[in-house]
Specification:
This protein is mainly α. Helices cover about 85% and strands about 0% of the residues.
Length: about 70
C-alpha cells in the first residue's frame, strides 16, 4: 500500500516538473523566456484537472481498501 501512496505522490510532483518535448522546448527557447514560461504554465494548467481526478479516485480507493484490512 505504501507503494501506491508513493506512486500517487510522485505522479502529482511530476506534474510540476514542466516536462516538454524537445521540439517544443527549442521553439519556445527561440521565442524567448516569456513564451517558454507560458508554455510551461499551460502544460500544468491542462494536466491539473486529470491528475486531480485520478488522485481523488486513488485516495478514496486507498481509504476503502485500508478499512477492509
Amino acid at each position: 500500500m505504501k507503494r501506491l501512496v508513493s506512486f500517487i505522490v510522485t505522479l502529482f510532483l511530476s506534474c510540476f516538473s514542466y516536462a516538454q518535448c524537445s521540439i517544443c522546448t527549442k521553439t519556445a527557447a527561440d521565442m524567448g523566456d516569456e513564451v517558454a514560461t507560458g508554455l510551461n504554465l499551460g502544460i500544468v494548467y491542462l494536466a491539473f484537472l486529470p491528475l486531480t481526478i485520478i488522485g481523488t479516485i486513488g485516495y478514496f480507493w486507498w481509504k476503502r481498501y485500508r478499512k477492509e484490512l
